[in-house]
Write a structure and sequence with these properties.
This protein is an alpha/beta fold. It is about 20% helix and about 30% strand. The chain is built from 6 helices and 16 strands. The strands form 3 sheets. Strands 6-5-4-3-2-1-16 form a 7-stranded mixed beta sheet, with helices on one face. Strands 7-8-11-12-13-14-15 form a 7-stranded mixed beta sheet. Strand 2 and strand 3 form a beta hairpin. The longest helix has 11 residues. The chain is globular, with a radius of gyration of 16 Å. The relative contact order is 0.15. Bound molecules: nickel (II) ion and manganese (II) ion. Nickel (II) ion binds next to loops.
């Protein structure tokens, strides 16, 4: 299984020849190193409607004929573009053939701006991807919430992808608390340094994680990939 970081909150997972893309923001993403027009994508997972996550979903889904998985309201929005969609909500798991996807809560907002007004897209979410015996948690944009403890108790999370940028999401201190509750084997920080408002010293986060012993903090630069 290969995990590629495309910058900000965008990750690509390759598993048995299937390509899963989460929050595909490339155009206008100052961190993106990849030309998204060359990607082969089977499944797009969306955590919420904000620009820096919804990104190039429509264009990529049209070109690759990819299936879009999203919270119901956002899935309905995507289906206006004649795209294949799969609506889910919190607590639901669906088996997609190559693995299962579980939608979980995130503490944030979800909207799409059109002509200066916000169109609301329901609730934002996070995902647990269960691929063979591996579990990857993409938290989406979220504040720290107490039920992360429940996720940690219920699932043996191998890799947690957590926002650390602060301002819109948890910052470093809260992300460390999240790791204490989720107990993943590996944590990869995301959603930092893209904009001036989310500037963070990522080494501080990795150093805090090192002290926990049971978890390894891995810093991926945009374009980097990692085998698990
Ligand atoms: Ni957001
Ligand atoms: Mn965001």
């Amino acid at each position: 299984m290969k995990l590629t970081f495309h910058g900000h909150a965008c990750f690509e997972i390759e598993h048995y020849g299937k390509h899963i893309l989460i929050d595909p923001w490339f155009k206008g993403n100052p961190q993106a190193k990849t030309d998204y027009r060359n990607l082969q994508v089977d499944l797009i997972l969306l955590t919420h409607g904000h620009d820096d996550h919804f990104g190039d979903t429509i264009e990529i889904a049209q070109k690759c004929k990819a299936l879009i998985v999203a919270p119901t309201e956002l899935a309905y929005y995507c289906s206006r573009f004649n795209l294949a969609t799969h609506a889910m909500y919190f607590g639901g798991t669906f088996h997609f053939g190559f693995g299962s996807v579980k939608m979980v809560q995130a503490l944030h907002g979800s909207s799409i701006m059109k002509n200066g007004t916000s169109e609301y897209m329901g609730n934002p979410c996070g995902y647990l991807l269960m691929l063979n015996d591996r579990i990857i948690y993409h938290a989406g944009d979220t504040a720290l919430f107490g039920d992360m403890k429940l996720l940690g108790e219920t699932y043996k999370i191998d890799v947690a992808l957590l926002p650390i940028g602060d301002n819109y999401t948890m910052g470093i201190e809260e992300a460390v608390k999240a790791v204490e509750m989720l107990k993943p084997k590996v944590v990869i920080p995301m959603h930092y340094n893209t904009f001036p408002t989310i500037t963070q010293n990522v080494d501080d986060f990795v150093n805090y994680i090192e002290k926990l012993h049971y978890c390894q903090g891995i810093r991926l630069n945009p374009g980097d990939n990692w085998e698990l």
